[in-house]
Specification:
InterPro entries: 4Fe4S_Fe-S-bd (IPR017896), 4Fe4S_Fe_S_CS (IPR017900), Cys_rich_dom (IPR004017), Helical_ferredxn (IPR009051), HmcF (IPR054810). This protein is mainly alpha-helical. The chain has 23 helices and 7 strands. It has helices at residues 15-22, 28-34, 41-51, 54-62, 74-78, 87-92, 95-100, 107-119, 137-150, 156-168, 176-190, 215-219, 221-234, 250-254, 257-274, 285-298, 313-322, 344-348, 353-363, 395-401, 403-412, 422-435, 444-451; strands spanning 208-211, 238-239, 278-281, 310-312, 338-340, 416-418, 440-442. The longest helix is centred in the middle third of the chain and has 18 residues, at 257-274.
Length: 462
Amino acid sequence: MPEGTLCNRQPITTEEQLKLVLNDKGGKQYYAEMEELEVDSDKLWGAIQKTLKSRTKTWLDICAHCGLCAESCFLYQVNGRKPEQVPSYKIQSTLGEIIKKKGKVSNEFMRHCMDVAWSWCTCCNRCGQFCPHGIDMGVMFSYLRGLLYSQGFVPWELKIGSGMHRVYRAQMDVTTEDWTETCEWMAEENEEEWPGLEIPIDKEGADIMYTCNAREPKHYPEDIAEAAILFHVAGENWTVPSEGWEQTSLSMFAGDWECCKDNVANVYAALERLKPKRAIGTECGHAHRATVIEGPYWVGREDGQPPVPYMHYVEWLLEALETGKIKIDPEKRIKEPVTLQDSCNYVRNQGLKNVTRKIIEYIVEPGYFREMAPNKEYNYCCGGGGGFNGIGKYRPQRNVALLKKLQQIKATGAKLVIAPCHNCWDAIRDLEEEYKIGIRWSFLKPLIIEMMVVPDHLKPEE
């Protein structure tokens, strides 16, 4: 079968197609069709010839098979240290073989590559720090994912997620109307407790344009309200765009590079339209990576920068604390063992390791903060990054992947895990639900709101 009805080489571009794939419960028909999907070897090899950069080719050629990357990989560690889980072997036996064979590979091999690309690697890039040649497996696995996506060998949920971005310009079916109504609803819902609270939409020339993760308006609207409350107390002149508010990229997880570019272009168009002084993104690691770190290159910006300075939420929060725009009541500081999850995407990939720790100094009573070991840029992936959290087919493997983070958290003795990243938050929530080790987890926003000093003029009348 050249291509299936649901599983094929075409991206989802219409609502009709999207609903058709969504209605396939758990991807049963999708994966059955995948077993019969023909590999278009000529197209695959043609794509490789056009896109294989000298850097990636050099990395494949110079790998010394020394195995120094093995222990760096948390998936290698939690899966019995099997040789097949060594990062260098994982990429050489998949991407390396596709290139050696000039794209002439079987359906069975491509399905194996899919399993490896999405359940044996989260593209956390930790192994690259230990390679004597500086080989970045995360970059190469991202490239492999792109090749697999182009041939139709992509997990069901990520085919859908990328389709959501193409149809709704968001990773979930949140329309412009849904988004703006949610903002209005959250402002109204909280105005009694926070007099004068607004969530301004499409305000031109504001100091800040705020962007978020589509999961917030879809499932966690209180997160939008919390951001609004903190901006309100800090006295910020801010806005959200009616279009271009979604900064996440399931298409990056899926390897749909054309869609990645479109996602970023949509956010940047909002920046050009509203002309804020800067942008602030929500507590989400991969959203920051997609929009701020990788995004400028995807859309061809020669300076490698977004149109305006673009900060992760933790950067703004530290600034607000250091300038006194937000003050913490010392009596309300955290006085129980607490640890911090370092997100791969803004700590390892942008170096914001000290920002969160400076915030910790404001909100945690001295003596109660417990570092994970290792930590900062050497911390391990939460176990659910790179799309791993959301793929039902690989849930058993994902649950095993959570064991490394479980070990790290238990070793700290912490009862609360601060996780300023949506994927990390989800993974640690699932870790507790699966293994029940007796922890709580939280973003920074609700913690700050609970302990900040509210000026009298912002309090509701008695």
